[in-house]
Amino acid sequence: MAADTHADDHGHHGPEKGLMRWIFTTNHKDIGTLYLLFALIMFFVGGAMAMVIRAELFEPGIQFVDPGFFNQMTTLHALIMVFGAVMPAFAGLANWMIPIMIGAPDMALPRLNNWSFWLLPFAACMLASTLFMEGGAPAAGWTLYAPLVLQGGNHFPFVIFSVHLLGVSSIMAAINIIVTIFNMRAPGMTFMKMPLFVWTWLITAFLLIAVMPVFAGAVTMLLTDKFFDTSFFSAAGGGDPVLYQHIFWFFGHPEVYIMILPSFGVISTIIPTFARKPLFGYSSMVYATASIALLSFIVWAHHMFTVGMPLAGELYFMYATMLIAVPTGVKVFNWLATMWKGAMTFETPMLFAVGFVVMFTLGGFTGLMMAVAPADMQYHDTYFIVAHFHYVLVPGAVYALLAAAYYWLPKWTGHMYDEKLGQLHFWLSTISVNVLFFPQHFVGLAGMPRRIPDYALQFAEFNMISSVGAFVFGASQLLFAYVVYKCIKGGEPATDEVWEDAKEHGLEWTLSSPPPYHSFTTAPEIK
Amino acid sequence: MNKAKRLLAGIAISALGVEAAQAEYKLNLVQGVTESSHAVYGLHQYMLWVCVVIGVLVFGVMFYSILHHRKSKGAVAAHFHENTTVEIIWTVIPFLILISIAIPATNVMLDMADTTDSDMTIKVTGYQWKWRYEYLDDKIDFFSSLDAKSNAARQKDSTVDPASVAHYLLNVDNPVVIPAGKKVRFLFTAADVIHSWWVPDFGWKKDAIPGFITDGWVKVDKPGVYRGQCTELCGRDHGFMPIVVEVKEEADYRKWVNERKQQSSQTQQDANKTFTKAELMAKGEEVYKSSCAGCHQPSGEGVKGSFPAIKNSPVAKGPIAAHTKLVLEGKGMMPGFRDMLSPAEIAAVVTYQRNAFGNNVGDQLQPKDIAASR
């Protein structure tokens, strides 16, 4: 009897029904879906906070929120967008796509995978709960610089433990990805035949494992400084407040590449499909990604040109930072060469990919400008910086995520999304995101510091424009949520290939749409 | 409506590149008034143009390709995907461009870091949320914080229109004064958290870090008033920590120094004087507004969960010695005011807090009592 039941199980290979399917799931697609859904919700939560910020900055004077609450909003907006939205969204893509792209049935460590996801909602709730505590949420910026952060009240241990949990989740996901890529590639898929998205995630996973513990260490030192009378970062006890910044940015700089390398992978996947050409310079793309990752470890103090480092240190960090422009440039030129003499079409994923290339490059230009230490003395901690990192993170990382979502949605759901609405979403987003962030370059150069709830009158006009852009951009993202919802509910059935001749561009297009519950039960042979 | 018109006019005028309009609608980095700031501006412009040229080339090629190599135009995809020569060229050329930026940048850097041979030194200490300036040569020492008008206008429920305040948020009660044409060295440190001292016209900023001394220098030839703000997040009132530097001709500067010295001898006299209660209350209200109201609120009601109320508070109604000690030494987020305020000011504000907001304790404090408690 028992034996019979067992045999039946093999026959189904389908998911359980109901809520328990999602809670106990070890299936890479279910977990990927959970990650993506969680990230989308967090994107709206963090976005709502950005709306509070932009509403306050709409006009000079304090209209809506207390300056202390304003600081809480900037801090939570950043922490939630980084750890709640962008990183989990990429982890979701990795879970969904890596096994399918390398011809594996699932991730290598499925139970660990379930854990890595389920830590997130709890960590996020813990972080959000600080808003309701006496004294409010953390208000020391996402960098949590000591000594300011040590002035925090009841929320302090909650924030630190939430960061720990988020870090543990990321490390477990990274381990899983590395093991999967190393061990579960289809026969014949050598490293240099792996899709670029897989490559970029492999490198990102190593970055994660290398730096998340550093961050955990730094915040633990904060914790002991606060509660156990240590003085790591307190000058009065012989500690060093700048040490915190060094440790933080040793994590924080690679962290920005953790958020951007998988984007490079996505863009390198999408552009060839819609240019109907193979990616130009595959191997140089791999080497460029690896060099960016390595360089990211040795440039951290370019966030600290104003702390009074020794001159030799400042010069070194300036030169090293400038070097990053070279491999990044190679990547952009390779995308260009991929488009060159292609036969391009511009469906929504391609629009977002092209938007990414243009606006990410703009963010890269300002990045190059701020690498130059003496000029950075002027840019540092102004809205010029805010404009720079939002150009690389919003039309950068977020656009890559949106491009990926549109590109793979038909594969995930088995239905085509609404192309008209998708294009509308792209154009609304692209116009508003530039109205939002471009004027911030001007106010920054004109002298507006970042993280201020109110400003001098000379900055009023551009702030108003920026806020209008923000509201439109925020509203446009609701359209995206609707497009996704509509696509899940139904729509024109998608073919296996989805995009014209997509089979030449990846293994995922050889599976049915949606793919079977266990992706590749028989490993495909790669020639 | 008026605002919208100004906005449109501003955009139109700045698009035309009319110089005069740029005072109000600035689109680019300030050129500043020091050699360093000019050098930095030069570097900035150079990099900006490098980026513009690369951008035009890159996006030009890209948009050409987007327009002409599209399937709807009958384009057929080529099949090349490798070209070592091209890839080497576009690795080497950016590298050469970087070298052309790095060389002048290094020179500017060396010059900016050279604080030797200065004519005078001012030590700047960051406090939440004011700056303290100590002239090490002339023995002048004072605090500088947001001016009263901006401070009133920036409150959440204020009825004051920021547009009616001159230099809204960019004005202070006590500006730093420096002589023109002299190399002035600034030393920076902080008393509580990290702050950052920035006057855009000088071309640099420097963090003020507790336990550290950092430095920078300026030499301004043109007398004038130069304004800036704190740029490192330093807590609730981070946005309200302006910096104003007045550059005066040597003779005017000396005059200012003498006035300042007289003021401090007045402060010393005040420390030995006995005030009437009415005098204490009047002075105390002034001090409360500039030093306490930011957190404890003008109404004395505080902010629930963050800043305790003064109204009906056990401290203000309890023993006066404990109340004085708290004001002098601070607690948690509250800074100690021992250095920030003169004994007369502390006596006045403590008296005020004990007798205002309905706290009718009735006692008072004299400056002498503060000196005794040191």
From TrEMBL, chain A:
Could you name the Gene Ontology cellular component terms for this entry?
A: plasma membrane; respiratory chain complex IV
GO BP of this protein: aerobic respiration; electron transport coupled proton transport; respiratory electron transport chain
Coiled-coil residues are: none
Q: Topology versus the membrane, per the UniProt entry?
A: Multi-pass membrane protein
* Family, similarity comment: Belongs to the heme-copper respiratory oxidase family.
The entry's function note states: Cytochrome c oxidase is the component of the respiratory chain that catalyzes the reduction of oxygen to water. Subunits 1-3 form the functional core of the enzyme complex. CO I is the catalytic subunit of the enzyme. Electrons originating in cytochrome c are transferred via the copper A center of subunit 2 and heme A of subunit 1 to the bimetallic center formed by heme A3 and copper B.
User: Per UniProt, which keywords does this protein have?
Assistant: Cell membrane, Copper, Electron transport, Heme, Iron, Membrane, Metal-binding, Respiratory chain, Translocase, Transmembrane, Transmembrane helix, Transport
Q: In which pathway does it act?
A: Energy metabolism; oxidative phosphorylation
Q: Which GO terms describe its molecular function?
A: cytochrome-c oxidase activity; heme binding; metal ion binding
Q: Under which name does UniProt file this protein?
A: Cytochrome c oxidase subunit 1
Keyword Membrane belongs to the record: yes
Q: Which reaction does it catalyse?
A: 4 Fe(II)-[cytochrome c] + O2 + 8 H(+)(in) = 4 Fe(III)-[cytochrome c] + 2 H2O + 4 H(+)(out)
**Positions of transmembrane segments:** 34-55, 75-96, 117-136, 156-184, 196-223, 256-274, 286-305, 317-337, 349-373, 385-409, 421-442, 462-485
The listed locations are: Cell membrane; Membrane
Q: Out of the domains of life, which is the source?
A: Bacteria
Q: Known EC number(s)?
A: 7.1.1.9
Q: Residues in domain Cytochrome oxidase subunit I profile?
A: 16-527
Indicate yes or no for the key word Transport: yes
Automatic annotation (TrEMBL), chain B:
Q: Which cofactor does it need?
A: Cu cation
Q: How does it sit in the membrane?
A: Multi-pass membrane protein
Q: Which superkingdom?
A: Bacteria
Q: What sort of enzyme, by top EC class, is this? A: translocase
Q: Which residues form the Cytochrome c domain?
A: 279-357
Give the PANTHER family listed for this entry: CYTOCHROME C OXIDASE SUBUNIT 2, CYTOCHROME C OXIDASE, SUBUNIT II
How the cofactor is bound: the record states: Binds a copper A center.
Q: Which residues form the Cytochrome oxidase subunit II transmembrane region profile domain?
A: 21-116
Q: Where are the transmembrane segments?
A: 47-67, 88-110
Q: Which GO terms describe its cellular component?
A: plasma membrane
Residue span(s) of domain Cytochrome oxidase subunit II copper A binding: 117-259
Q: What is this protein called?
A: Cytochrome c oxidase subunit 2
Q: Which InterPro entries match?
A: CcO_II, CcO_II-like_C, Copper_CuA, Cupredoxin, Cyt_c-like_dom, Cyt_c-like_dom_sf, Cyt_c_oxidase_su2, Cyt_c_oxidase_su2_TM_dom
- What Gene Ontology biological process does one annotation of this record name? ATP synthesis coupled electron transport
Listed Gene3D superfamilies: 1.10.287.90, Cupredoxins - blue copper proteins, Cytochrome c-like domain
Entry keyword annotation includes Translocase: yes
Keywords, in A-Z order: Copper, Electron transport, Heme, Iron, Membrane, Metal-binding, Respiratory chain, Translocase, Transmembrane, Transmembrane helix, Transport
Residue ranges the record marks as coiled coil: none
What the record says about family reads: Belongs to the cytochrome c oxidase subunit 2 family.
